[in-house]
User: Fold this.
Amino acid sequence: MATPFLADGTTLQVDDGASSAYVAITQVLTITPPSEEVGGYDATTLTSTAGTMVKAPLSRKEPGTFGWSMWNDATEKLRMMSLRGVAHNFKITYPNSAVDTIPGWISKVETDELENQSPGKLKVTVMISGAVTRV
Amino acid sequence: MGGGIFVPLWLLAFGAAASRPPDPADVRAGVAYSDVVPPDPADVRAGVTYEYGGVTYVGTLFVPAFASSVPTTDIEASVFGQLAGYGPLVTAVGDRIYPGEADPDAPRPVVVYSLDGTEPVRLLTGALSFQRHTFTVRVDAMHKDEARRVAATVRDALDRQAFGVAQRAYWVDESADETADGYESVQTFTVIQ
Assistant:
């Protein structure tokens, strides 16, 4: 029987210090991990008489974005905004000890809709700038 | 001048007036008071009346003196402390505020509160972020008007208030119905800890 993957215990860090030390991002509720995408191009020859186009994969992957939601903690919000637009490395450590190291920059710090009786949340988006290292 | 002791007539009148000091259990711990010097109303449990020199005082202490002996980490104790320390509710029901079940011999109206459930909310790391408790507060009364009035007072005591270990309480809903010998109002509250 397959063992289900539980996200409980997953941590997120950012290399935001002058000493290149990873520092935890606290108050994180959910993470949408990176998922590189291989796009395609139209490979249909001009002489083709087939009724369906021919597609082929691109040789390079599109790194895309990744992001997380967190409580709208004033200190952490200011910290996320100070990191916005500056290249960093992010690290997701999963409960099974797998680690994703992700180069990129915070492109957006979004305040989630405010709802009575619920603590406010932030949504943070990172534009990934290169290959993700998986260990 | 003569060597006799002069006692003004007004002081004699003051001393002769009736005094009914508050019970020590109703006074904030550590506050000293005597038959001559009354405690400040802010040091006496809300709704408790006492007299000095013919003057009647009403305590306004929001948190009751006995709350200091209640564990501050307990959400049920916090809700009880909030209800028992809310002056208008004390005026309406006295100390007839019960956990779970009311004293069957207690005169109505009575307030009965119970913790129905707790939902933990966690961070992705697994750390507990906060807890969301559901409380039911029932008012048993002889008549509909009385039940509704006391229920509104309970609502004033809890809705959107922060107290004890509770970050904030919210009134969720209310239902009301006749019972075999009176009327009851049942309200639900969400309490964030």
Observations:
- Chain A has one helix and ten strands.
- Chain A has a mean pLDDT of 92.
- The first helix of chain A runs from residue 74 to 83.
- The CA atoms of residues 43 and 49 of chain A lie 13 Å apart.
